[in-house]
Specification:
The chain is of the alpha+beta class. The protein is 23% helix and 29% strand. It has one domain. The longest helix is centred in the last third of the chain and has 18 residues.
């Protein structure tokens, strides 16, 4: 008979805040419930599509049709749930305020950083560098660990305790995967992205290749098309 203790616990998705210099985790945010669905979008960085002529439709762009300028721009969207009533054994005098604040601080500089920027401004510093945030990783199992920037955080609080502390909320979260095009060479996040991409390459290599026959084609069909195109180019 199967016992509850024998049932493996599901791995949780989450966010890890990493010190980019030392590579040590500063904070780990474990999502209380894994999202039911994930929406992912990949937009290729095609060469010849960013010219001033508009849309990359010029004659010279024909030589760039199969070229890429860099990694695809990848975005993730999902809905996360937080529910204090599911954690009755854990005292929650502030409701889910702490969990919400932790996520909101992913897009906020700290008071210390803001005070330091203000101090430099009062000293007459001509140029103040934008505040750098810690490196953020999104994890969805061991095969998806990637550096990201939070691009969207929408909170829908749906229940409150007697002190008006929120105790249940759904969060719409949007993430942009940071690639080697976004980060400086040698940055720890860039290396983590390369590891993420290498994982995709490995997984793609495990897929059994299809056959031309399953598409109703033969090698001659492909070769004939290439020869016909070559003939037309020679005549031109």
């Amino acid at each position: 008979m199967t016992r509850y203790a024998d049932i493996p616990k599901p791995i949780r998705s989450g966010i890890v805040i990493v010190d980019p210099e030392r590579g040590t985790p500063q904070r780990i945010i474990v999502l209380q419930f894994n999202p039911d669905t994930l929406e992912r979008s990949l937009a290729p960085q095609a060469a010849g599509t960013g010219d001033a002529g508009g849309g990359g439709s010029g004659q010279g762009d024909r030589n760039e049709a199969l070229r890429l300028k860099g990694p695809a721009e990848e975005t993730w969207k999902f809905t996360a749930e937080i529910d204090a009533t599911d954690q009755l054994e854990v005292p929650a005098p502030d409701g889910i305020h702490p969990q919400l604040a932790t996520l909101e601080m992913l897009v906020q500089p700290t008071t210390a950083q803001l005070r330091e920027a203000s101090r430099l401004s009062k000293k007459g510093t001509i140029e103040i560098s934008p505040i750098e945030m810690p490196l953020t990783l999104f994890t969805w199992g061991s095969k998806r660990v990637m550096p990201v920037r939070l691009t969207e955080l929408s909170v829908n609080e749906s229940a409150f305790d007697v002190n008006l502390n929120p105790i249940r909320a759904s969060l719409s979260i949007g993430l942009k995967v940071l690639t080697v095009s976004d980060l400086p060479a040698g940055h720890r996040g860039a290396e983590l992205y390369l590891a993420h991409l290498a994982q995709k390459e490995r997984l793609a290599g495990t897929v059994r290749s299809g056959t031309l026959g399953s598409l109703g084609l033969t090698g001659a069909d492909i070769g004939m098309g290439a020869r016909a195109a070559s003939t037309r180019m020679g005549r031109a």
